[in-house]
Design a protein that fits this description.
2 copies of one chain form a homodimer.
Chain A: E1 15-21, E2 24-28, H1 29-36, E3 43-46, E4 53-55, E5 59-62, E6 68-79, E7 83-85, H2 88-94, E8 100-101, E9 112-115, E10 120-123, E11 127-130, E12 133-136, H3 138-144, E13 151-156, E14 162-171, E15 178-182, H4 183-189, E16 196-200
Parallel strand pairs in A: 1-15, 2-6, 7-11, 8-11, 12-14
Antiparallel strand pairs in A: 1-16, 2-7, 3-4, 4-6, 5-6, 5-9, 9-10, 12-15, 13-14, 13-16
Chain lengths: ~200, ~200
Amino acid sequence: MLRCKYIYSGVSMNKVPVAISNRHIFLSEEDTIRLFNTLNVPRQKTLGQEKYYAYEPTVDVIGQNNYVIKNVRVIGPPRKKTQVELLFGDCVKLDIKPYIRQTEDIKGSPGCVLKSKYGQAQLNTGVIVPARHMHANYEDAEKMGLIQNEFVKIRAAGDRALIFDNVLVRIDKYASLAFHIDIEEANAANVKPGQMLQILK
Amino acid sequence: MLRCKYIYSGVSMNKVPVAISNRHIFLSEEDTIRLFNTLNVPRQKTLGQEKYYAYEPTVDVIGQNNYVIKNVRVIGPPRKKTQVELLFGDCVKLDIKPYIRQTEDIKGSPGCVLKSKYGQAQLNTGVIVPARHMHANYEDAEKMGLIQNEFVKIRAAGDRALIFDNVLVRIDKYASLAFHIDIEEANAANVKPGQMLQILK
């Protein structure tokens, strides 16, 4: 690390495992019923953050230009508002303005159409590209000196080395320690799920 | 920039415009004839680096698993060796190990099949994911204090702010000043073609 000694002063040696998300959807109860005819949608598997689960059936996302991204994963349980988290590249294909926001911050975001074999939902808003963030529980946060809603930098080493800036810290009692990025961010850095990356404070 | 004052000491204020590449192919003369039946392939347009041009016809890339990426752009003039530059995500789809290398550094890289309406080429090697780099001519390089083959860092600001590390500097008499990244890297940083990014030395 000699070449870095003037660049990264005050480096923390705390590390966080990477979790990589693909495009996915959270549905409101109303849209769950519109698209699946029931609130008891069959579940697929448990995700890393244990309070969430994936539904078996998927939905198609249709853009302003009628381009279709098929078989997009839906995550339960239902939320107050439907939220479609896409990759930046998906938005380009669908002709939807990429709106980079933290989860649930959908105010002013564009819409799209969701379609399943049971029905469809016309969204006026709710499409975002997820902003990078990390999860920690209270114990991890205290150990690492992380503060709720602060921004940290996270460094990936290797052939596509880079430093992710603007990483929001989200502390929650039930959180598994994880740095959440999407597939494009992971590919840009050549990092794999579970790989330990260094938090720079 | 107050929050950065202990992090980036010795910052250079030199800036470089972004050039974003999609997947593309350079063909050897032999493979050009195999795929297009001629060396006089119709040309499409002039690219940023003026000694290169795009051919009108495209080819399909076929992976180990028979997955096909259709209509991939081919860049002329022919090179000594055929080289297929893919996105990291393409390699995952094609079941080809992503091999991140600078252009022409194809030793040990995996192969694939290229197919056109005229014929096909079976490559044993030549598939890489391009390693990020920047181009400068001698005048730019002198002005900015850039040295041939050194590595610099380049910072993108904004909602997906990050610092690209390991950016190889390639100085050439005919080069247009440009920081070359691929679509996934550009999307990860939310940067657009031509956007000026800061070089950190």
